[in-house]
DNA sequence: TATTTGAATTCTGAATTCAAAGTACTATGA
DNA sequence: TCATAGTACTTTGAATTCAGAATTCAAATA
C-alpha cells in the first residue's frame, strides 16, 4: 500500500513561507504586508495569499493595519509571558500523561529512553557547535516528542499555536544573548522522570522548565 | 464618540452559521458539505465559504471526504477525553491566575464575587427552568469570566478551540441524560476559592471540576 | 500658517471564471 | 457473472475581475 503523496497546495506553501520569514526575523515586527506584493514575490495569485494571511492573523502573528494591509505584530513582554504560562500548563500535562503511559505499560520505557537520549544528544551537539537554527529545532523536537508519547494528540495541536509565537522570541534571543547552559540538563531530568514513570515529578519539572525559560528570556529582552 | 460598527464580513458570518449548525446538531456527524451547495444556501459565493470551511477544518470539526467534499467529523470518546484533559489544565491555570490577581489586588474581590454570583444565579435558574440552551450558555459564561479575570488573554483564545468541540457533546447529552445536579455547586466552590485568594485550591477545584464533567459525559455516552 | 474638505489612490473582500484531480459509473471482454 | 479499463462528472484549488471602503495627499479658505 503506497502512501498518498499529498502536495501541500499553494496556500499551505505560502503559509509556511510567511511563517518562516516571520519567525526568523526576515519580516521584522511592524513590517507591513500587502497581498498583491506577496503574491508577486511568491509567484501566485492573491487568493492563496489571502488564506495564508487569514491563518497568520488567527495565530496572532499579524494584526490589522487599516489602509496599509496587515503588519507583523510586535512582541511585547506581557503577551510572551501569557504564551509561556499556557505552555507551562500544556507541557506539564504532556509530561504527566507521558509518565502515566509508561506507568501503564502503554509504551516501552526502553524505547522512550533511547529516543529521548538521541534527541538530547543532538541538542547538546547543536549548542557546542553554536548552531542557532539547530538549537531551536532540537528544542522543538524534544517537546514534540513528549507531546507525541503523551497519547493526547490535541496537545501537539494546541501547543503549535504558542510555538509559532515563541520561535520568534527564541531566535531573537539566541542570536544575541548568552547561550542557555542548562536547558538540556532540564530536558534530561524531565525524560528521567518520565522513564521512571513518575507523573507528578515529570509534571513539576516540565512546568518549572518552561517557567525558567520564561524568566530567562524576559531578562534577556529587558536588558537589550 | 460613537463606536465603530464593524460588520463581520461574509466569511465570518458563514463560519458562525456553520459552527452553530454543527454544534446544535443540525449538521449531524458524517454529513457531507459541498462548497457550492452551502454557497447557494447562504446566498454568497464560494470564496467566503471556502475560508469558513478551512477554519472549521483547522478546528477539527470537519475532515476531508475525498471526492465528496468535507464531512462533519464524528465525535469519538477518546478525542473528547483529550479535549477535556486540555481544558482541565487550562481551566486550572485560569483559576489559579485569577486567584493570584485577587491576591495581588489586581482586581477587587468584591466585584469578582458580585459578578460571579450573578452568573451562578442565572445558571441555577436555567437548570430549574430546564432550558438546555441557557444551561450551556451560562456554563460558558462562567468559565469565560474566569478566563477573563485571569489576566491572560490567550487562555480564552486557546480554550475556544476546545469549547467549540465540547459544545456539541454537551448539547447531545443535556438533551437526553439527567441534568447535572452539582456543577453549579462546584462553580460556586471555585469562585469562593478565587475570592478567598487561594490559588492552589482554586486550581485544584477547577481541574477536578472538569475531570468530573468528563467522566459524567463519558458515562452518559457509553450508556446511550 | 493651520485646518478642513475633497478627490484620488490603494487595499481588501467578494464574485466569477478556469483548470486540474479524483471518483463513480458504465461498457466490454474474459 | 466478475473484473478491468475508459469515460464522464463532480468537486476543489487557483486566477482574474469587480466593487466597496479607508487613507492620504493636496488645495482652498479662514
Summarize the structure.
Chain A is 74% helix and 4% strand.
Structural notes for this entry:
The structure is a homodimer of 224-residue chains. With 224 residues, chain A is mainly alpha-helical. Helix content of chain A is 74%, strand content 4%. A 3-stranded antiparallel sheet of chain A has the order 1-3-2. The longest helix of chain A is centred in the middle third of the chain and has 27 residues, at 77-103. The termini of chain A are far apart. Chain A binds a DNA duplex (30 and 30 nucleotides) through helix 1 and helix 3.
Topology at a glance:
Two copies of one chain form a homodimer.
Chain A: H1 9-23, E1 32-33, H2 35-42, H3 46-59, E2 62-65, E3 69-72, H4 77-103, H5 109-129, H6 132-149, H7 153-176, H8 183-195, H9 199-223
Antiparallel strand pairs in A: 1-3, 2-3
Helix pairs in contact in A: 1-3, 2-3, 4-6, 4-7, 4-8, 4-9, 5-6, 5-8, 6-7, 8-9
The structure holds a DNA duplex (30 and 30 nucleotides).
